[in-house]
Amino acid sequence: MDRKDFLKMSGGAALGMALASCGAGGKSTGNRGTIKNLGIQLYSLRDDLPKDPKGVLKKLASFGYKEIESYEGANGMFWGMSNTDFKKYMDSLGLTIVSSHCDHKKDFERKAAEAGAIGMKYLICPWLGKQRRLDDYKKAAEDFNKAGEICQKNGIRFAYHNHDYSFRVQDTQYPQDILMKNTDPALVDFEMDMYWVVTAGQDPIEWMKKYKWRFKLCHIKDRKKDTPFKEGEPNQSCIVGKGSIDYKPILAQAKNLGMQRYILEQEAYEKAPLDCVKEGAAYLNNLVF
Protein backbone atom coordinates (compact mmCIF):
# COMPACT_ATOMS: atom_id res chain seq x y z
CA MET A 1 0.00 0.00 0.00
CA ASP A 2 1.24 3.46 -0.88
CA ARG A 3 1.84 5.44 2.31
CA LYS A 4 -0.11 8.37 0.84
CA ASP A 5 -3.24 6.22 0.95
CA PHE A 6 -3.14 5.65 4.67
CA LEU A 7 -1.66 8.84 6.12
CA LYS A 8 -5.08 9.99 7.30
CA MET A 9 -5.40 11.57 10.69
CA SER A 10 -8.05 11.85 13.34
CA GLY A 11 -8.44 14.83 15.57
CA GLY A 12 -7.73 15.29 19.25
CA ALA A 13 -9.47 17.57 21.69
CA ALA A 14 -6.25 18.20 23.58
CA LEU A 15 -4.45 20.37 21.01
CA GLY A 16 -3.75 23.21 23.40
CA MET A 17 -2.69 20.86 26.18
CA ALA A 18 -0.32 18.95 23.91
CA LEU A 19 1.42 21.99 22.54
CA ALA A 20 1.62 23.62 25.95
CA SER A 21 3.16 20.54 27.54
CA CYS A 22 5.67 20.24 24.72
CA GLY A 23 6.70 23.81 25.30
CA ALA A 24 6.70 23.79 29.09
CA GLY A 25 7.66 20.26 30.03
CA GLY A 26 11.19 20.20 28.68
CA LYS A 27 13.33 22.71 30.49
CA SER A 28 16.96 22.40 29.53
CA THR A 29 19.37 20.90 32.04
CA GLY A 30 21.99 23.44 30.99
CA ASN A 31 23.75 21.15 28.54
CA ARG A 32 23.08 23.03 25.32
CA GLY A 33 23.36 20.96 22.20
CA THR A 34 22.73 20.61 18.50
CA ILE A 35 21.78 17.79 16.17
CA LYS A 36 25.11 16.28 15.12
CA ASN A 37 24.07 14.15 12.15
CA LEU A 38 20.72 15.28 10.80
CA GLY A 39 18.82 12.67 8.82
CA ILE A 40 15.98 12.80 6.31
CA GLN A 41 13.27 10.30 5.42
CA LEU A 42 13.34 9.95 1.63
CA TYR A 43 9.54 9.79 1.54
CA SER A 44 9.80 13.57 1.89
CA LEU A 45 10.87 13.61 -1.78
CA ARG A 46 8.47 10.90 -2.95
CA ASP A 47 7.60 12.69 -6.20
CA ASP A 48 11.12 13.79 -7.14
CA LEU A 49 13.15 10.80 -6.01
CA PRO A 50 11.93 8.17 -8.50
CA LYS A 51 12.78 10.49 -11.41
CA ASP A 52 16.41 11.06 -10.40
CA PRO A 53 17.53 9.19 -7.27
CA LYS A 54 21.20 10.12 -7.55
CA GLY A 55 20.47 13.76 -8.30
CA VAL A 56 18.11 14.10 -5.34
CA LEU A 57 20.58 12.44 -2.96
CA LYS A 58 23.32 14.80 -4.16
CA LYS A 59 21.11 17.80 -3.39
CA LEU A 60 20.27 16.45 0.06
CA ALA A 61 23.97 16.19 0.85
CA SER A 62 24.46 19.79 -0.26
CA PHE A 63 21.65 20.89 2.08
CA GLY A 64 23.55 19.56 5.08
CA TYR A 65 21.91 16.21 5.68
CA LYS A 66 24.26 13.49 6.90
CA GLU A 67 22.01 10.45 7.36
CA ILE A 68 19.39 8.88 5.13
CA GLU A 69 16.32 6.86 6.00
CA SER A 70 14.95 5.18 2.90
CA TYR A 71 11.60 3.56 2.17
CA GLU A 72 10.38 0.98 -0.31
CA GLY A 73 9.51 2.64 -3.57
CA ALA A 74 8.78 0.95 -6.87
CA ASN A 75 12.48 0.11 -7.20
CA GLY A 76 13.01 -1.06 -3.63
CA MET A 77 14.88 0.46 -0.70
CA PHE A 78 17.95 1.14 -2.84
CA TRP A 79 16.22 2.89 -5.74
CA GLY A 80 17.21 0.66 -8.62
CA MET A 81 20.74 0.10 -7.33
CA SER A 82 22.13 -2.89 -5.49
CA ASN A 83 22.64 -2.42 -1.79
CA THR A 84 26.41 -2.18 -2.24
CA ASP A 85 26.21 0.23 -5.16
CA PHE A 86 23.80 2.40 -3.20
CA LYS A 87 26.22 2.50 -0.27
CA LYS A 88 29.15 3.37 -2.56
CA TYR A 89 27.23 6.31 -4.01
CA MET A 90 26.19 7.46 -0.54
CA ASP A 91 29.79 7.24 0.62
CA SER A 92 30.87 9.45 -2.29
CA LEU A 93 28.42 12.12 -1.08
CA GLY A 94 29.35 11.90 2.59
CA LEU A 95 25.97 10.38 3.42
CA THR A 96 25.13 7.30 5.49
CA ILE A 97 22.05 5.16 5.08
CA VAL A 98 21.10 4.28 8.64
CA SER A 99 17.60 2.89 8.22
CA SER A 100 14.70 2.17 5.91
CA HIS A 101 10.97 1.74 6.21
CA CYS A 102 9.82 -1.52 4.67
CA ASP A 103 7.20 -4.27 4.66
CA HIS A 104 8.39 -6.69 7.34
CA LYS A 105 5.89 -9.33 6.25
CA LYS A 106 7.31 -9.79 2.76
CA ASP A 107 10.74 -11.25 1.94
CA PHE A 108 12.11 -9.86 5.18
CA GLU A 109 15.04 -12.27 5.51
CA ARG A 110 16.51 -10.93 2.27
CA LYS A 111 15.91 -7.31 3.24
CA ALA A 112 17.57 -7.77 6.60
CA ALA A 113 20.57 -9.50 5.03
CA GLU A 114 21.03 -6.72 2.46
CA ALA A 115 20.70 -4.04 5.11
CA GLY A 116 23.16 -5.73 7.43
CA ALA A 117 25.68 -6.24 4.64
CA ILE A 118 26.10 -2.48 4.16
CA GLY A 119 26.11 -1.51 7.82
CA MET A 120 22.58 -0.15 8.16
CA LYS A 121 21.28 0.14 11.72
CA TYR A 122 17.52 -0.38 11.35
CA LEU A 123 14.65 -1.75 9.33
CA ILE A 124 11.37 -0.14 10.39
CA CYS A 125 7.68 -0.96 10.10
CA PRO A 126 6.14 2.34 8.94
CA TRP A 127 2.47 1.52 9.46
CA LEU A 128 0.26 -0.88 11.35
CA GLY A 129 -3.10 0.84 11.21
CA LYS A 130 -5.78 1.05 13.86
CA GLN A 131 -6.67 -2.48 14.89
CA ARG A 132 -10.18 -3.64 15.65
CA ARG A 133 -9.30 -5.29 18.96
CA LEU A 134 -6.62 -4.68 21.56
CA ASP A 135 -5.50 -8.30 21.20
CA ASP A 136 -4.61 -7.48 17.61
CA TYR A 137 -1.94 -5.09 18.90
CA LYS A 138 -0.54 -7.92 21.02
CA LYS A 139 -0.36 -10.07 17.91
CA ALA A 140 1.42 -7.23 16.10
CA ALA A 141 3.90 -7.04 18.97
CA GLU A 142 4.62 -10.76 18.56
CA ASP A 143 5.27 -10.17 14.86
CA PHE A 144 7.62 -7.30 15.74
CA ASN A 145 9.57 -9.59 18.06
CA LYS A 146 9.97 -12.15 15.28
CA ALA A 147 11.14 -9.44 12.89
CA GLY A 148 13.54 -8.28 15.60
CA GLU A 149 15.04 -11.76 15.79
CA ILE A 150 15.66 -11.75 12.04
CA CYS A 151 17.28 -8.34 12.27
CA GLN A 152 19.43 -9.41 15.21
CA LYS A 153 20.82 -12.31 13.18
CA ASN A 154 21.96 -9.78 10.59
CA GLY A 155 23.53 -7.32 12.99
CA ILE A 156 20.79 -4.70 12.76
CA ARG A 157 17.69 -3.77 14.76
CA PHE A 158 13.96 -3.58 14.13
CA ALA A 159 11.72 -0.64 15.01
CA TYR A 160 8.12 0.55 14.66
CA HIS A 161 7.15 4.04 13.48
CA ASN A 162 3.95 5.42 14.98
CA HIS A 163 1.07 7.48 13.71
CA ASP A 164 -1.58 9.10 15.88
CA TYR A 165 -3.87 6.07 16.30
CA SER A 166 -1.58 4.27 18.75
CA PHE A 167 -1.51 7.36 21.00
CA ARG A 168 -5.30 7.63 21.20
CA VAL A 169 -7.30 5.74 23.83
CA GLN A 170 -8.99 2.65 22.44
CA ASP A 171 -11.15 0.54 24.74
CA THR A 172 -9.67 2.30 27.79
CA GLN A 173 -6.05 1.70 26.78
CA TYR A 174 -3.38 3.29 24.62
CA PRO A 175 -2.39 0.85 21.88
CA GLN A 176 1.14 2.28 22.14
CA ASP A 177 1.35 0.93 25.70
CA ILE A 178 0.41 -2.52 24.44
CA LEU A 179 3.07 -2.43 21.75
CA MET A 180 5.74 -1.21 24.16
CA LYS A 181 4.93 -3.71 26.91
CA ASN A 182 4.66 -6.73 24.63
CA THR A 183 7.84 -6.22 22.63
CA ASP A 184 11.25 -7.37 23.80
CA PRO A 185 13.57 -4.37 24.37
CA ALA A 186 16.46 -6.57 23.26
CA LEU A 187 14.81 -6.96 19.85
CA VAL A 188 12.52 -4.01 19.15
CA ASP A 189 12.99 -0.24 19.33
CA PHE A 190 10.58 2.54 18.42
CA GLU A 191 10.75 5.50 16.08
CA MET A 192 8.71 8.36 17.54
CA ASP A 193 7.03 10.51 14.94
CA MET A 194 6.63 13.57 17.12
CA TYR A 195 4.13 15.29 14.83
CA TRP A 196 1.72 12.38 15.19
CA VAL A 197 2.20 12.21 18.95
CA VAL A 198 1.27 15.90 19.25
CA THR A 199 -1.61 15.44 16.80
CA ALA A 200 -3.03 12.80 19.16
CA GLY A 201 -2.91 15.36 21.99
CA GLN A 202 0.06 13.74 23.70
CA ASP A 203 3.40 15.03 25.01
CA PRO A 204 6.48 13.47 23.35
CA ILE A 205 8.64 14.17 26.40
CA GLU A 206 6.32 12.33 28.77
CA TRP A 207 6.23 9.26 26.54
CA MET A 208 10.01 9.24 26.24
CA LYS A 209 10.21 9.44 30.02
CA LYS A 210 7.68 6.66 30.43
CA TYR A 211 9.64 4.34 28.14
CA LYS A 212 13.19 5.55 28.60
CA TRP A 213 15.64 4.12 26.05
CA ARG A 214 12.91 2.56 23.92
CA PHE A 215 12.48 5.48 21.49
CA LYS A 216 15.82 5.44 19.64
CA LEU A 217 14.84 7.30 16.45
CA CYS A 218 12.48 10.19 15.80
CA HIS A 219 10.75 11.93 12.94
CA ILE A 220 10.77 15.70 13.22
CA LYS A 221 8.08 17.62 11.38
CA ASP A 222 6.10 20.67 12.33
CA ARG A 223 2.38 21.42 12.48
CA LYS A 224 0.72 24.50 11.02
CA LYS A 225 -0.21 27.16 13.53
CA ASP A 226 -3.83 27.75 14.50
CA THR A 227 -5.15 24.59 12.88
CA PRO A 228 -7.90 22.81 14.80
CA PHE A 229 -7.63 19.07 15.32
CA LYS A 230 -10.45 17.34 13.49
CA GLU A 231 -11.02 13.69 12.84
CA GLY A 232 -10.05 12.84 9.29
CA GLU A 233 -8.34 16.20 8.73
CA PRO A 234 -5.84 16.51 5.88
CA ASN A 235 -2.18 16.50 6.83
CA GLN A 236 -1.36 19.72 8.65
CA SER A 237 2.43 19.49 8.61
CA CYS A 238 4.57 22.39 7.46
CA ILE A 239 8.22 23.37 7.11
CA VAL A 240 10.06 22.67 10.34
CA GLY A 241 10.53 25.85 12.37
CA LYS A 242 7.48 27.60 10.95
CA GLY A 243 4.80 25.78 12.89
CA SER A 244 3.43 25.31 16.39
CA ILE A 245 5.67 22.57 17.81
CA ASP A 246 8.49 23.94 19.94
CA TYR A 247 11.33 21.49 19.34
CA LYS A 248 13.89 23.14 21.62
CA PRO A 249 12.57 21.72 24.91
CA ILE A 250 11.78 18.37 23.31
CA LEU A 251 15.24 17.87 21.84
CA ALA A 252 16.89 19.22 24.99
CA GLN A 253 15.62 16.15 26.84
CA ALA A 254 15.45 13.55 24.07
CA LYS A 255 19.10 12.50 24.11
CA ASN A 256 19.08 11.81 27.85
CA LEU A 257 15.97 9.70 27.37
CA GLY A 258 17.55 7.45 24.73
CA MET A 259 17.10 9.26 21.42
CA GLN A 260 19.92 8.59 18.94
CA ARG A 261 18.68 9.44 15.42
CA TYR A 262 16.98 12.67 14.38
CA ILE A 263 15.22 12.47 11.03
CA LEU A 264 13.28 15.21 9.25
CA GLU A 265 10.18 14.14 7.36
CA GLN A 266 8.19 16.48 5.15
CA GLU A 267 4.66 15.24 4.46
CA ALA A 268 2.83 18.31 3.15
CA TYR A 269 4.30 21.07 1.00
CA GLU A 270 4.01 24.84 0.95
CA LYS A 271 6.46 25.12 -1.94
CA ALA A 272 8.62 22.77 -4.00
CA PRO A 273 9.52 19.69 -1.89
CA LEU A 274 13.27 20.23 -2.29
CA ASP A 275 12.88 23.83 -1.13
CA CYS A 276 10.92 22.65 1.93
CA VAL A 277 13.55 20.17 3.04
CA LYS A 278 16.34 22.66 2.32
CA GLU A 279 14.72 25.15 4.70
CA GLY A 280 14.13 22.40 7.24
CA ALA A 281 17.79 21.40 7.18
CA ALA A 282 18.92 25.01 7.60
CA TYR A 283 16.65 25.41 10.63
CA LEU A 284 17.54 22.15 12.38
CA ASN A 285 21.27 22.33 11.69
CA ASN A 286 21.36 25.72 13.39
CA LEU A 287 18.99 24.91 16.25
CA VAL A 288 20.64 25.14 19.66
CA PHE A 289 18.72 23.56 22.52
TrEMBL record:
Gene3D superfamilies noted in UniProt: Divalent-metal-dependent TIM barrel enzymes
Pfam families noted in UniProt: AP_endonuc_2
InterPro entries xref list: IolE/XylAMocC-like, Xyl_isomerase-like_sf, Xyl_isomerase-like_TIM-brl
Chain ranges of the Xylose isomerase-like TIM barrel domain: 58-286
Name of the protein described by the UniProt record: TIM barrel protein
Organism: Niabella yanshanensis
